[in-house]
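Reply to dn_fold:

You asked what the input looked like. This is it:
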Amino acid sequence: MRLRVSTVEAGNEREALRGTASVTFDEQIKVTGIRIIEGKNGALFVAMPSYKAKDGEYKDICNPISAEFREALYGCILAAFEENPGTSMLYNADSKEKLEVTARVTPIEGDNGVKAIASVYLNNGFVLNNVTVRESKEGKLYAAAPSYRTNERNEDGTVVYRNNFYPVTKKAQEQFQKIVLSAYEGKLQELSAAQQENVKGSKETEKEQEAEENQEAKKKQDTEKKSKAKSSPKTAR
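and this is what came back:
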């Protein structure tokens, strides 16, 4: 798969932070906010965008999910930074592997119109986390990527937020929306079918229990009748 890597040197703002990078997968989905950090031993390493969870731990917003893809991706990022910082480099230009996007969705009962949380997978080698399925005021569903607060301001003074990753073309955006929303609808159907099956199974169980209770009641009645018949005195002839 083609990877377009852009890097920028960080200057002297933070000693450990040497630069930042963005990666565009197959010219369709762009990931920003990647950090290039110098370790204590002087070696550079790549840190993916992350956020601080409620438990205080930092979790990746997006990241490679296979060792092979991690090695290839991080290698491209570090090579671009060390060889041509401040430029855009295209790697695997002759690759015939196309971008394949899949999604796994978990419906939730959320606030602010949030209907589900999704993870989006790129060729089963990279995952985009914290995608949300939301409902607009008009009742329309849409998929939204996570965003972060910047130090920038709009003309009206409001804070500027930027997405950690996003489709870079209209076609890619439409495809992204279609894949996530289709996964959401499919999950709802799956849960509905499971719920109906559970209701059906519950009703069948209730019928079986009722049948057993009726059978036990009938046995008890038969036993009582036989007991009465044995205890009743016979009429002499």
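The domain at 3-188 is CATH 3.30.1120.40 (Arylsulfatase, C-terminal domain).
Hope that clears it up.
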